[in-house]
Write a structure and sequence with these properties.
Blueprint lengths: L2 H23 L2 H17 L10 H18 L1 H12 L8 H19 L2 H12 L4 H8 L3 H19 L5 H5 L1
Helix pairs in contact: 1-2, 1-3, 2-3, 5-8, 6-8, 7-8
Length: about 170
């Protein structure tokens, strides 16, 4: 793959990969950095890529792995601490703040799910992939994707039960 091919690949794949990384790390800047690292790593190590599967699935897997590595890193912990210490929450409207907190609760609940359920939920709802596309990327039958989606939603429902949703109470 030459530099022109890489540019074309980046045009096609950057946005969906940033969405995946963002869902993991919940920080747009970090998500962009992760995707940039993925493309650099892919370019320098492309001889390891065997064209058995789809390139999109390969890059998606690289992105999710790099995102998980970031969540374990000192950089992430430092950023989280800085965010807590220097929060700009006072500048935001109360409704917006509550909505973001509730989104964070849902995001954290999804991150607590087992990987099998978490992956299909992310691909299906956040990347807006069809069940057939998710099955292809994960190399599993469509019926398994449907089962994992159903089970993931059940686990989420149980996890989030009992939480009073401020946004819903104010509407």
């Amino acid at each position: 793959m030459n530099i022109h091919d890489l540019k074309e690949l980046m045009l096609q794949q950057t946005e969906p990969l940033i969405r995946i990384a963002y869902y993991y790390v919940k920080d747009l800047q970090a998500a962009e950095d992760i995707v940039q690292e993925v493309f650099i790593k892919f370019y320098h190590n492309q001889h390891y890529y065997e064209e058995r599967g789809e390139l999109k699935a390969f890059l998606t897997k690289m992105t999710s792995n790099k995102s998980k590595d970031y969540l374990k890193s000192w950089t992430y912990r430092k950023v989280q601490l800085q965010n807590k210490l220097f929060s700009q929450a006072a500048k935001k409207q109360v409704d917006e703040l509550v909505r973001k907190v509730e989104q964070a609760i849902i995001g954290e609940a999804i991150l607590e799910l087992p990987l099998k359920q978490r992956e299909v939920l992310i691909y299906f709802y956040f990347n807006e992939m069809t069940i057939m596309e998710v099955a292809h990327i994960l190399s599993i039958p469509e019926s398994t994707v449907k089962t994992r989606l159903r089970r993931g939603k059940e686990l989420l429902r149980d996890e989030l039960k009992g939480i009073e949703w401020e946004v819903l109470l104010n509407e």
